[in-house]
Amino acid sequence: MAKLIYSMITSLDGYAEAAEGTLGTGAEDEEVHTFIGDTFRNVGTFLYGRRMYETMVFWETAHDLPEVPPHILQYARDWQAAEKVVYSTTLESVSSEKTRIERNFDADAVRTLKAESDHDLSVDGPNLAAQAIAAGLVDEYHLFITTSVVGGGKRFFPDGVRLDLDLVEQRAFASGLIYAHYRTR
């Protein structure tokens, strides 16, 4: 059975999206980007909300940019090879291959997808992830913690949910970014 992984960059105070401005720096360098690519290479399906999909669809054509570094090219190829499911009530069409739109998040359909998949799945975006967490679907959490405190926004973990997690791996990067990988007990 495949795992469902929730991973995002988060501020030091736990926000996956800042109310104002950015979450800070740390995830832009080659070391971090290569690590992210290597860590999530086994993801065969990405589950996105509309806004996260609109951010990530960049990878559909990133290989066409001039002088693309190898680590960017590899990530683009991996992303293009994966299936994508976009949960949106407003998105009319998609602009990437291997992508379909679902109008509503269906926990049972995701359970079936996990059971039938040979590769892991990733849920991205705090709103969609909150639904998967509440349904008890998330098996692993990968946090990339910046050095910034942003004071508000959308939280990485939803309010009202209790989780007991085991630390699997941690790593600090030269940029100051901290990686923390947890598994659900």
Q: Summary?
A:
The chain is of the alpha/beta class and 185 residues long.
Which properties best describe this structure?
Dihydrofolate Reductase, subunit A, alpha/beta, 185 residues, RibDG_C, Riboflavin_Biosynth_HTPR, 10 strands, 26% helix
Sequence-ordered SSE layout with sheet pairings:
Blueprint: E1 4-10, E2 15-18, H1 30-39, E3 43-49, H2 50-56, H3 70-81, E4 83-87, E5 99-102, H4 107-116, E6 120-124, H5 126-134, E7 140-145, E8 153-155, E9 165-172, E10 178-184
Parallel strand pairs: 1-6, 1-7, 3-4, 3-6, 4-5
Antiparallel strand pairs: 2-8, 7-10, 9-10
Describe this structure in words.
Residues 3-178 form the Bacterial bifunctional deaminase-reductase C-terminal domain. It comes from Occultella aeris. This is Bacterial bifunctional deaminase-reductase C-terminal domain-containing protein. The chain has 185 residues and is α/β, with parallel strands linked by helices. The chain has one domain (4-162, 169-176): Dihydrofolate Reductase, subunit A, CATH 3.40.430. It has 5 helices and 10 strands, in the order ββαβααββαβαββββ. The strands form 2 sheets. It has an 8-stranded mixed β-sheet with strand order 5-4-3-6-1-7-10-9, with helices on both faces. A hairpin with a 5-residue loop joins β9 and β10. The protein is globular. The chain starts with a strand and ends with a strand. 28% of the residues are buried. The model has no long low-confidence stretch (mean pLDDT 95).
